[in-house]
Specification:
The chain is of the alpha/beta class. It has a seven-stranded mixed sheet, sandwiched between helices. Strand 2, helix 8 and strand 3 form a beta-alpha-beta unit.
């Protein structure tokens, strides 16, 4: 059975058999067998190819890394755990935003603390103009999940929907920005996700607490790890069911 993930990753990055053969110091026919016969390369070759196509080993070869080893790598993906989101230094947010060149992804209900950065919209526009792919998911103010979250936090049914409407207004200037897409979702938000290339801030949500008082994980993607990829796949799942907002 062909390895379609590997084939697609190479095509997306403009790479052919010769490119991979040269980088891994193997014969092009060996590379062809990795694709057409789904042969699994040696670990050193997997590392090289994953870096070339900017994918994880787990994505390209799901069965290549043993579960115990994936668990070890996943632990190493955790850079730091903050007890509360509000304890994350502002310069970390700014550093991650400034360094992102390929992907910026945001999954929130409202995230109005982001509006504290007066340069955020201007920075995101510039990132989009330079080719960064930006995807923003905001809570749908009409969704019952947002009203329920307000009740759970003890601030009333209308509080979170109102914040989501404010968030939509805040991000509206990005609607015509290149490489930028904004959607609304009505899913239960277990975690807010902020991705900057291969680093991610995951704000967990705790019943009865506002997001700013809940813990936050700082993750860095490692080839062969599962943790970063789990949250990334969760983002994609929400994105697939989200819709264009009615401005």
């Amino acid at each position: 059975m062909p390895n379609e993930r590997l084939r697609d990753a190479l095509l997306r990055n403009g790479l052919d058999l010769d490119h991979v053969a040269k980088a891994t110091s193997v014969d092009p026919k060996t590379v062809e067998r990795w694709i057409t016969q789904s042969r699994t390369p040696y670990p050193r070759h997997r590392h090289t190819i994953a870096a070339m196509v900017r994918e994880t080993e787990n994505y390209l070869w799901p069965d290549a890394v043993a579960p115990a080893r994936r668990s070890e790598i996943g632990t190493s993906e955790i850079i730091k755990v903050y007890p509360h989101r509000h304890s994350v230094p502002n310069d970390l947010w700014e550093h991650l935003l400034a360094g992102a060149g390929r992907y910026i992804e945001v999954l929130i209900y409202a995230g109005m603390f982001l509006a504290d950065n007066p340069r955020l919209i201007r920075t995101l526009k510039a990132k989009g103009e330079s080719g960064t792919k930006i995807r923003i998911l905001i809570g749908d103010p009409a969704a019952r999940e947002l009203a329920r979250r307000g009740e759970e936090e003890g601030i009333g049914r209308e509080a979170i929907p109102a914040k989501a409407r404010n968030a939509l207004a805040f991000f509206k200037p990005l609607t015509d920005a290149p490489h930028t897409t904004i959607r609304v979702h009505g899913t239960t938000l277990y975690n807010s996700i902020y991705r900057f290339d291969d680093e991610m801030l995951v704000n967990t949500h705790v019943y009865g607490f506002a997001g700013g008082h809940a813990p936050l994980l700082h993750l860095r993607r490692l080839s062969g790890g599962d943790l970063f990829e789990t949250y990334s796949e969760s983002f994609d799942s929400v994105w697939g069911s989200a819709k264009t907002p009615k401005w």
